[in-house]
Amino acid sequence: MKNICIVSGGSSGLGLEMAELLVKSGRNVLILGRSMERLKKSLMRLNGVPHEGFAESFSCNIGNEAEVRELGNYLSGRYITEYLFNNAGRGLFTKATNSTSELIDAVFEPNLKGLILLTSEILRITPEENELSIVNIMSSSALLGRAEETIYCAAKWGARGYTEALRTELKGTKRNIIAVYPGGMKTDFWKVTEHNRDISKFMDPAEVAEKIINAVIVKDHLAVTDLNINRK
Q1: Is residue 201 within 8 Å of 154, Cβ to Cβ?
Q2: Average pLDDT over residues 208-227
Q3: Residue 152 CA: distances (Å) to CA of 25, 79, 120, 171, 181
Q4: CA 62 – CA 142 distance, rounded (Å)
Q5: With helix as H, strand as E and coil as C, how does 54-65 read?
Q6: What's the pLDDT at 212?
Q7: Of residues 10, 51, 45, 12, the one with CA closest to residue 28
Q8: Which of 65, 113, 147, 156 gives 20 to 30 Å between its CA and that of 124?
């Protein structure tokens, strides 16, 4: 079976930039996303760069347990996950008084529930003797509270708690748990809702991707556990 790197939210933004760097490094990559159209377009971009490995896409709503199981079935007996980049997410910027069950579910599904479901499935199907690195890409909002980000911060703080607990549970195994906390980036993330923020000075996702891949894809006796990335 071949090794593969999985990137959720891999059809745009930071996820796509990381996928491209992984492909360029000669690794096999599988990008996940909900939109078949966007996945197809992103896959064309990845296949257009010189590489020794291969790139594939798989339509999957990581917040849907049945779809995550389908992904697991597809991978089993075919690939062994070498790196899992939990990158999918959704933002929400609104006052605390506007909270509804619908909004909570919409934000928690990709940022927390989906991260847990996908991680659990990959852990389940990856042989214990194989090394697996799980890279949970969260946000600086997982480290501090921000006004008008109550639901978003709650989801990201939950993801951070899950990451810390998972690291403790898997200590001493061949599972490496890496937490990444990037600041604001110039991506489609900001198109999900109306906001009044000037993002012109936010970070370039390509540069953030390079920082993450350079820190994570290293085979030596040292390991990165937590990575904070912010603009100067």
Answers
A1: no
A2: 86
A3: 33, 33, 22, 29, 14
A4: 20
A5: CEEEEECCCCCH
A6: 96
A7: 51
A8: 156
pLDDT in tens, 134-188: 999 999 888 998 888 999 999 999 999 999 999 999 999 999 999 999 987 666 6
Please give the Cα distance from 137 to 153 (Å, whole number).
14
Taking the model in full, what pTM does it have? 0.92
Backbone angles phi, psi at 218, to 5 degrees: -135, 130
Comparing C-alpha atoms, which of 124, 122, 125 is closest to residue 133?
122
The fold adopted by the segment(s) 2-229 is: Rossmann fold (3.40.50)
Q: Where do the structural domains in the chain lie, given as residue ranges?
A: 2-229
- Cα–chain center distance at 134: 9
- Assigned token pair, 138: 């969260």
Residue 177's nearest CA partner among 153, 159, 154 is: 159
In total, the chain counts a number of residues equal to 232
Place of tokens 């690939």: 79
How many of the other CB atoms lie within 10 Å of CB of 232? 3
From the CA atom positions of the chain, what is the Rg in Å? 17
Q: Which of 105, 104, 137 is nearest to 118 (CA)?
A: 137
DSSP letter string over 154-199?
HHHHHHHHHHHHHHHHTTTSSEEEEEEEE--BSSGGGGSS------
